[in-house]
C-alpha cells in the first residue's frame, strides 16, 4: 500500500482543515450515457448499491472527513435529487455551524442565464460561499462512486502551498486517452494538462501508468474567488474547471496532483483503491453486480466510514415457499428491505427496496431498482430494470439478443435496460 506522507501528521482537532472548508458539489448534469435511466432524474440521483443514490458518496466522504458546510448545485431534472437531499440530508444544524444548501440554477445573475459550466455554477453562488466564511473550498463531482478522506488532500494542499490541488486516479497508460491526464514532475507539480490525449504521459515512477483527473479540486477560497470573477468576464471561456480554470493554473506553474491512493478509505477487504464513474449502462450494471461478490471491490459494510442516505422505514426482506421448482431463495445476492422473494430463484443479483418477485420466476445477474414487481414465470438475466416497473408474466430478457433489441435497450456489452414505457410499447404492439 502507498505510504501517505500526510496521514500521520496530527495537527490537533482545533486546526483540522476540514472545519475551515466548504464542499461544493456539482450535481447538475444529466449523464446522457445512462440513456433512459436519466430521462426522469439527474445522474447523481440515480440509485446505487441497494439503498443509496450516487450523490451520497461524495456527500458522505465530506461528512466523514469532518466537513460540515456543503452546497449542491443542481440543474437538469433536479426534483428527485432535491427530494432525496431534503429527506436524507436534513440533519445539519445551523446552531452548530453546519449547513447544506441546495442551489438550483435559478437565474440569479440574469433572467436568461442558467449555469453555463462547472465554474459558472460556483461563480453564480459566490455570495453564498462568502457567507460561509471558509478558508478552503473543495469542488466535487456529484456522480462518482468511491470512499475518500478529503482531510488528507487538504493537508497536502496547505503544505505544498498550491493554487489548486487536483485529485488524480492512477490508471493504465493505455486507458489514459479516455480521461483528462495530468503530467507531473517528481515533486507532484502538474507541468501539463492534457484532455484525452492519444499518447498519455506516464508518471515519474511508472511509465506504464498515467494520472487521470477525478474532477476533485481544492482551492483557497480567496484565490478561487478572484479567478472565477476573471473567468466570468472572459467571453471566450467555457466557464468550466476542466477546460479553462485548471489548465490556466497549470500554465502558471502552481498546480499539484493528489494521488487517490493516498487518501482512499479501505477497510482491509478491498485490495486496491476503488473509484467508478458509473456513467454508462454497462458500468452501472457492473458496479452494482460487483457488490454481490464474496469479497466485493467496494466494502459497504464499513461502519467507520458509512455511506449516509435517506433510510426508509421498511420491513425486513422475506422469502416464502419451499417446494421443488418453487423455492424462494437468493444466492450471492443483495436483497434490500421490503423485498418479497416468493417461490423464485435469485442469483448474483442486487434488489433495491420494495421488490416483489413472484413464483416460478428467476433472476440471474439482475439489478432491480426500487419497487419493481416481477410477475410469475419471468426469466431475467444480465439486465437493469428501472424503478416502479411491472414485469409481465412469462417475460424473457437476456437470452435472445434480437428479441431484446426489438423492445428494449441492449448495450454493446450485452446488458439490457428495461423501463415501463418500453414494456407499454411492447404490450401495445403485441395486442395489435
UniProtKB/TrEMBL annotation:
InterPro entries: ADP-Glc_PPase (IPR011831), ADP_Glu_pyroP_CS (IPR005836), GlgC_bac (IPR023049), GlmU/GlgC-like_hexapep (IPR056818), NTP_transferase_dom (IPR005835), Nucleotide-diphossugar_trans (IPR029044), Trimer_LpxA-like_sf (IPR011004). Residues 315-418 form the Glucose-1-phosphate adenylyltransferase/Bifunctional protein GlmU-like C-terminal hexapeptide domain. It comes from the Bacteria. Alpha-D-glucose 1-phosphate binds at residues 115, 180, 195-196, 213. Transmembrane segments: none annotated. Pathway: Glycan biosynthesis; glycogen biosynthesis. Keywords: ATP-binding, Carbohydrate metabolism, Glycogen biosynthesis, Glycogen metabolism, Nucleotide-binding, Nucleotidyltransferase, Transferase. It catalyses: alpha-D-glucose 1-phosphate + ATP + H(+) = ADP-alpha-D-glucose + diphosphate. SUPFAM superfamilies: Nucleotide-diphospho-sugar transferases (SSF53448), Trimeric LpxA-like enzymes (SSF51161). The keyword DNA damage does not apply. Its EC number is 2.7.7.27. Homotetramer. Involved in the biosynthesis of ADP-glucose, a building block required for the elongation reactions to produce glycogen. Catalyzes the reaction between ATP and alpha-D-glucose 1-phosphate (G1P) to produce pyrophosphate and ADP-Glc. This is Glucose-1-phosphate adenylyltransferase. It comes from Leucobacter weissii. The lineage of its organism: Bacteria, Bacillati, Actinomycetota, Actinomycetes, Micrococcales.
